[in-house]
Amino acid sequence: MKAKVKKFIIYTCMLTILFTELAAQTVILNRDPEIKAMVEEISAERLEQHIQKLVSFGTRHTLSDNKSNKEGIGAARNWVKSELETYARESGGRLTVALDFYDIPADGRRIPEPVQLANVMGTLKGTDPNDDRILIISGHLDSRASDIMNSKIKAPGANDDGSGVAVVMELARVMSKRSFPATIIFMAVSGEEQGLLGARQLAEKGKKEQWNIVAMLNNDMVGNSASSGTNLRDNMQVRVFSEGVPQAETEEMARNRRYTAAENDSQSRQLARYIKEVGERYVDQLQVTLNYRSDRFLRGGDHTPFSQNGFAAVRFSEMNENYYHQHQDVRLEDGIQYGDFPEYVDYFYARKIAGVNLATLANLAMAPAAPQNPGIDVSQLSNETLLKWQHPAGKEPHGYYVLMRETYQPFWEKKIFVQGTEVSLPYSKDNYFFAVQAVDAEGHESLPVWPLPLR
């Protein structure tokens, strides 16, 4: 009898431990019904239609035909503009569309002679006159084959980067039906393959004109779910690349980074973590995998010029690339079909990635601006951490979250709600990292801000 009782007690303890562990792993998802509805409105069929149309232009090489209405970069650019104008007419004046022209001189490398290029810009103007924040989502319009300088050969560009442009267009359609306090720019750029030309044009313009760009989301190759060589198939993960040490770092920024061990907490890295939290909140069966480098190994994308000009910018890209369908001449070789065709795009996968983009943009655009000048009081030694900050400009927040994680952890582990502008926590700043974000009454959070020492 005693043995049975002993076994029962052991069994009960094991169950208690199991249920305690399960409870500790429970994640509560609070979804804004309006954001949820927008995510559900994204159409895989429309993404496919957009990509099929982009491929129909034969090539979209940056240096291809600018004048034709049927083929080349000019025809593709005009079609994207006309589609965005359709959404603009249905937006009640909220969305405006324009071509942003710019001249590129010959460089003796990828631009053999001077050329005029243009980015397609759809601007959904924010409704709050006191909110100057700008959010940008981008894909690149141009395509290429094996030879980067061959502007005549067929270059379908279905996934690279028809998928990114299709995502931008679909989000413009869905989001332009709604209003947001902050401004959102939907952008299809030219010149990516020739040297990130269109993105650099806008990033430098934004810096010169002091735009308050708080987030730039670059979507480049977001439609392929089957890898070449390794034969991996994965439509349940998407990579988000973000820089660690900022490319635009000043000496003062470098000094603060060294003093506070902020190598993994640049504003772009904070944006990446935000995308993971918010994206997985609204999109099921998709894990946002944070890649802690600025881009693929020794490569770059249209987010790079924004990072170089001091803006928070990241790149979305499929989990596994297929090099049979990327930067390849169209051909059949050794039984393998090469070329970037629409039939190799996973449209339901692209739809999920589009949902992560939309949830991020909408949550940010609805949220208050980030708190200003957060800091950690270091006037005296203490095993507690005193954090202080100032109210953000514009919309008054409902309160703030203080985020914290142990120093070896990649993601924020706790969010502590605070209604004032300072808090003392019984956690040592030696053992934890902190950040502060603003939140409204509906739960829309700003980007987290890394605190600096307050003496």
Task: Indicate the CATH architecture of the largest domain.
Answer: 3-Layer(aba) Sandwich
Q: What overall geometry do the principal axes of the alpha carbons give?
A: globular
Helix fraction bin: 25-40%
Q: Give the rounded overall mean pLDDT.
A: 94
Word description of this protein:
The chain is α/β, with parallel strands linked by helices and 455 residues long. The chain folds into 2 domains: 33-366, Zn peptidases (Aminopeptidase, 3-Layer(aba) Sandwich); 372-454, Immunoglobulins (Immunoglobulin-like, Sandwich). The protein contains 10 helices and 17 strands. Strands 1-2-4-3-5-8-6-7 form an 8-stranded mixed beta sheet, sandwiched between helices. Strands 15-12-11-17 form a 4-stranded mixed beta sheet, with no helix packed on it. The chain has a 3-stranded antiparallel beta sheet with strand order 14-13-16, with no helix packed on it. α3 packs across α5 (162-175) and α5 crosses α10. The model has no long low-confidence stretch (mean pLDDT 94).
